Amino acid sequence: MTASRSTTIIFDKNDETSRKEGAKIVAIDGTPISIGQSIKTAAGQFSLTDKGAISFQPPSGLQMEPIWLPPPEAVVSRLGEIAKSGYRDSTLWEHLGFSLFRVIAGFFFGALVGIPLGYAMGLSDWFRGWFDPIVEFMRPVPPLALIPLVIIWAGIGETGKIILLFLAALWIMAIAARSGVSGVRISKVHAAYSLGASKAQIMRYVIVPNSLPEIFTGARVAMGVCWGTVVAAELVAAEKGAGMMIMVASKFQLTDIVIMGIILIGVIGFGIDILMRWAERVLVPWKSKG
């Protein structure tokens, strides 16, 4: 009886005619092995079955517990389940719809106040002197830092959440409008005056059209900030919303729902940005054309 060696497996080769069981595996990668034993090597895991046959399991790569990072199929399965059956007595579309409503309402009121304020600061030295320090002071303050103050002011209901989103959009829109007005070339204003235009006509046909590109850029930034802030706003006593889903799921360590919520927030935010880019191309076709 002699020993024969492959790259990894060592087995004995029977030359005796009286032996019927044939070759028998005796070692794996230089390590003796017997029936029922397993050996791990760089190539994978080897084991011997009850009949002496070899079983091989290739390396499966880095493994992680589902509580830390669930597999994609688990997230997709959970998405289908919640889309069909809902979550905490509300459908998935109700949760996303409430979040979207809060964002749109907060952004709308922020733009409604911020754009006129920005125009006033860009056109009037008096307004700029009074409000520019306030705007520049509030601009770097993160909206999340205002949550305790908003709760004191407006409570934990819908009004408080919309006020928080309003404050998140207000300063961005004010700065965008001010920057748009300040960026209007004075030569265009002088040309309009020389043609006999009134102040109202200059405002309507010169300042507003030339400031709209900056305002749309600010609107995209403000909408993104609002969409990110709504998740934090819904962490405080919200009954419906994407942020509420994430918060409740995290308490019960349902990582698949948390990741599902994060993905949905990212997809909707990306869709909103694409929609605003399209609106900018349609409403401000003269952007970047001087």
Automatic annotation (TrEMBL):
CDD domains linked to this entry = TM_PBP2 (cd06261)
List, in alphabetical order, the GO biological process terms annotated in this UniProt record. alkanesulfonate transmembrane transport; cellular response to sulfur starvation
Keyword Glycoprotein listed? The answer is no
Where is this protein localized, as stated in its record?
A: Cell membrane
Domain of life, source organism: Bacteria
The family database entries (InterPro entries) matched by this protein are listed as:
MetI-like, MetI-like_sf
Membrane topology listed for this record: Multi-pass membrane protein
Any one GO cellular component localisation term in the record: plasma membrane
The ABC transmembrane type-1 domain, residue ranges: 96-276
Alphabetical UniProt keywords: Cell membrane, Membrane, Transmembrane, Transmembrane helix, Transport
Coiled-coil residue spans: none
Q: Which residues cross the membrane?
A: 100-120, 140-156, 163-181, 215-236, 257-279
- Pfam families assigned: BPD_transp_1
Q: Can the keyword Cell membrane be found in this entry's annotation?
A: yes
**Protein's job:** Probably part of an ABC transporter complex. Probably responsible for the translocation of the substrate across the membrane.
For this chain, the family text in UniProt reads: Belongs to the binding-protein-dependent transport system permease family.
Q: What is the designated name of this protein? A: Taurine ABC transporter, permease protein
Top-level taxonomy: Bacteria, Pseudomonadati, Pseudomonadota, Alphaproteobacteria, Rhodobacterales
